[in-house]
Amino acid sequence: MPWKETCAMFERVKFIGMYLQQEWTMAELCRFFDISRKTGYKTVKRFQRDGLSGLEDRSRAPHRHPHAVSELIEQAVMAGRQVHPRWGPKKLKAWLQRRDRETEPFRACRRQNYVRDYCHGKTKQVFTGGPGTGRADG
User: Fold this and answer.
1) What are phi and psi of 122, to 5 degrees?
2) Most buried of 37, 82, 103, 117, CB within 10 angstroms?
3) How far is CA 16 from CA 2, 48, 85, 90, 125, in A?
4) Alpha carbons 114 and 112: distance in angstroms, whole number
5) Rounded Cα gap, residues 56 and 47, in angstroms
6) DSSP 3-state assignment of 111?
7) Domains in the chain, number
């Protein structure tokens, strides 16, 4: 027997249709659809509030980003990387802070991965020798 493929939207519409018939309790409907009662009530609430558009999948992306930096700071970091491409995060931070005391460039560097982790002593050792040679570059 082949697998049945259904989409979440179709299942939600079917759930709401059966709910509106009022022939089953919420617990029975949720058991039938293999969802929790909390999810069942949430689906009904969204349908009552927003109609069919409330049953569509929603984005799981956060509404705000607490560690995000302003575009101005990001541009300053990028400009610093272009002027001094070989500088690491410590030098870039000091250089940018001397230029503009109000910025927090180091966080922008780390967030965008413009710099490596070597300022925190996290260097990777790459083994180039065979087993038992003990040779490592890094």
Assistant:
1) -100, 75
2) 103
3) 26, 10, 58, 57, 57
4) 5
5) 10
6) helix
7) 2
pLDDT by 10s per residue, the chain, length 138: 455 677 888 899 999 999 999 999 999 999 999 999 999 999 999 999 999 888 888 888 888 887 777 788 788 888 888 999 898 888 888 888 787 765 455 555 555 555 444 444 444 444 444 555 555 544
Q: Judge whether 9 and 57 are in contact, CB under 8 Å.
A: yes
The two three-digit tokens of residue 9, written as one number: 């939207």
Please say whether the beta carbons of 107 and 67 come within 8 A.
yes
- Asked whether residue 50 falls in the same domain as residue 80, the answer is no
First-to-last alpha carbon distance for the chain, in angstroms, is 56
Tokens standing for 17? Answer: 């249709």
CB 109 within 8 A of CB 115: yes
